[in-house]
Every structure is written in structure tokens, then in C-alpha cells.
Design a protein that fits this description.
Elements lengths: L1 E11 L5 E11 L4 H11 L6 E7 L2 E4 L9 E12 L5 E12 L2 H12 L7 E7 L2 E5 L1
Parallel strand pairs: 2-8, 4-6
Antiparallel strand pairs: 1-2, 1-3, 5-6, 5-7
Length: about 140
């Protein structure tokens, strides 16, 4: 299960002035928000960092592993359409994240994942996320 957390950090800009900035993390393999909170607190070890929130994340899985620290985190929305027992057309959507250097690479990573037995699930969209890191 994935959780996300937002942290308000003090950063120094290019002019040497300190200012507050908010960053978002994804935390993997936590049974509840309390464990995710502790893992985020450990990851942001700087005094004065404030955890704004921790909540369950809509991301269902990561499509790949990070190769180096330079890749960005992209989030894809995938979905399928089906007919329920009453004859009504229903759709289900899922979010899948991946590490990539650009949008084209992220799109290809998700398409390759969907070819590996995801049946009638289609790619709806891919966009760059504002998450800065995955905490394992």
C-alpha cells in the first residue's frame, strides 16, 4: 500500500535567502498512516521540517525501478470499461507511477507494462507528478 505525504521544508534559494517550500513524498509498504508518517519524518531529517499531511495514495503500483536519482516520477491513469449485470456500462480507473526522464519515456514504460497481461486495460493519460521521491 502506498501513502503520500507533504512536507514543508526550509530551503535556501540561489540568492542565499531561506524560504519555505512544500514537497511531496510517496511511501511504500506501510500498513497505516502512522508508519508512513514515521518513515517520512526519518527521510526529512532536517530540523524545522513540518509534515503537513499523510494520507493513502491513489497509486496502485510502480511500473519500474529508479535507475539513478535523476528520473522524475510520472503518474499514468489507466482504465477499463465493462458492462455490469444490470447492463450498465461502468468504468474503472487506476493510477500507475513510473520513473522516467521525460513524458515520452514514461508513456512507453506504462504501455510496455500494460502489454504484460493487463487484458483490456487502456492507457488514458500520463503526466509528470509533483512527487520528489519514493521512500522504500
Amino acid at each position: 500500500m502506498y501513502f503520500e505525504g507533504q512536507v514543508k521544508k526550509t530551503v535556501v534559494d540561489e540568492t542565499g535567502r531561506s524560504k519555505k517550500a512544500t514537497v511531496k513524498y510517496i511511501v511504500e509498504n506501510c500498513p497505516n498512516c502512522g508508519y508512513a508518517y514515521e518513515r517520512i519524518r526519518e527521510a526529512s531529517e532536517v530540523e524545522g521540517d513540518e509534515i503537513v499531511y499523510v494520507k493513502q495514495c491513489a497509486i496502485m503500483e510502480f511500473a519500474n525501478e529508479r535507475r539513478d536519482g535523476e528520473e522524475l516520477i510520472f503518474v499514468a491513469i489507466v482504465g477499463s470499461v465493462f458492462v455490469d449485470e444490470m447492463g450498465n456500462e461502468k468504468s474503472m480507473k487506476y493510477k500507475i507511477a513510473c520513473f522516467a526522464y521525460n513524458l515520452e519515456e514514461a508513456t512507453q514504460i506504462v504501455r510496455d507494462l500494460l502489454k504484460q497481461g493487463y487484458g483490456d486495460i487502456n492507457l488514458i493519460s500520463v503526466k509528470q507528478s509533483n512527487y520528489i521521491d519514493l521512500i522504500r
